[in-house]
Amino acid sequence: MADILDLFCGVGGFSLGAARAGFNIVGGIDSDPHAMKMHMLNFPNSAHWEADISQLSGKQIFEHFGIRGAPDGIIGGPPCQGFSRMGHQNIDDARNTLFNKFFALVAEMRPRFFLAENVLGILDPQNSPLIDLALQHVRNEYTVLRPIILKASEHGAPTTRTRVFFYGYRPEAMFPISEREFVNLPDTGTVHVGDALRGLPQKIADDWHDNPAGWLNVPALGIRSYYYDRIRGHIPCGIGNRSAINRMRTKHEISGNQGTVHTPKVRSRYAALKPGDVDPISKSRRLCLDGFCPTLRAGTGREHGSFQAVRPIHPSQLRVITPREAARLQGFPDWFQFYPTKWHSFRQIGNSVCPILAEKISSVIKEHIPEE
Fold first, then answer.
1. pTM of the model
2. How many folded domains does the chain comprise?
């Protein structure tokens, strides 16, 4: 089985997609302790390192994980806040240097291939020098494809989240691959918000704040489709928390259904909104059952003010969505676990790569690895 190392792994959306495509997640690295705790829970057979990647060398990573020789692939989503069109697009944001660091580590560790994900704003003209600088690390040894832009809603997920992927491979170690093979991914059907939320409880009490209260009975619907198979099944060997998986299978209980307190005034505003409308004060958008979810935002960490992300409003209820609803909209399975608090859950979901899209991209790459 081909080995993958996930840099900036977060909670593990990229890791899950790669694992479902048949890769072995040999290790994950991230500096966020809450994200790392959940990656460890969801990927119990992988090695982990909570560390600042900007301070690491390839040699240190090899030694920490006990890797002999290069891994088959290195994947990762370097922090994107400095590039995001939703933010300030500060070209001097210190986090922008981590994009360059990703490619420097690739050049040092020499995997067969690399796959990096980022926001569409990274392709804006002011960021061209940074991209050129980063790719200079790998141009001599790797065939580097042009940036690949993919919208999750066009590939089987219920969100319009659009991201750019940077892919390269060592031509002597991989079969040739083109941008067209990533763009023309298999059609697995269109999934709307109503499809994604089907079966989840709609009535969520305000006082269901803690993690125990968020575990609710959600029976399987028996629907056969690519999306629902990824929501309740398709669990790779050794992936997932055994307790959570067993609880889903035997008791039909899943986590993340915590409520949010809304004042009567806020509920009154929400009641006046039609599907697609935006609340003028909170800027939350009411979701449409037959539409797609806009890109879920992550908010900021403590080092940047601990701002909570704007959360969409449920299409039929007078409340914002729960963490589990957000997970469904992002394409995460019901057995996947997030940090018990809502703030960290939403940050982890908003920062993640859509697992459904990650699986499709990883499957294309997997097909181009020569059998040995």
1. 0.93
2. 2
